[in-house]
Specification:
Order of helices and strands: HEEEHEEH
Strand order of the largest sheet: 1-3-5-4-2
Strand content: 35-45%
Number of domains: 1
Number of strands: 5
Length: 141
């Protein structure tokens, strides 16, 4: 069965989709630098070491850059953690922060963005991180 959508309906859907993605808070770019691993569960714990390497043996999995608003740095950290789970990493370390000036956002014009880059790694020689149950609120972050 064929359905017909009017141009205004399609453009409204496009605008809403763009607005939703713009309001998501951050985006990232992940580069795999190690072996391919299965993803971790959505609520698996991820250890974050902003300025130091982890105190245990690890293998590098990926390099990640997250970009978020200057007033929303927690979005960058959450994005790094989510990306770590997606590539099978349970550790984020060596976070470097910087800024990009003049990024255009559809909902806010030009603004400065925060950039966080880090290494995503997987602990070796220890027990794997347990996938803990999470509440609906945690699963949506």
């Amino acid at each position: 069965m064929l359905t017909h959508r009017s141009a205004s309906s399609a453009s409204t859907s496009l605008v809403l989709a763009l607005f939703a993605s713009a309001c998501a808070g951050s985006w990232s770019d992940v580069t795999i630098i190690g072996r391919s691993l299965p993803p971790l569960g959505e609520c698996s714990p991820v250890q974050v070491f902003p300025t130091t390497p982890p105190p245990y043996a690890w293998e590098n999995v990926a390099f990640d850059q997250a970009i978020c608003g200057v007033v929303e740095p927690s979005f960058c950290i959450r994005t790094l953690e989510q990306d770590a789970r997606r590539v099978g990493a349970d550790t984020v370390f060596g976070i470097h922060e910087g800024y990009i000036n003049g990024t255009y956002r559809a909902y806010g014009g030009f603004r400065t963005e925060k950039v966080m880059s880090a290494t995503l790694a997987r602990r070796v020689g220890g027990p794997p991180a347990a996938d803990v149950g999470c509440s609906a609120a945690t699963a949506r972050r």
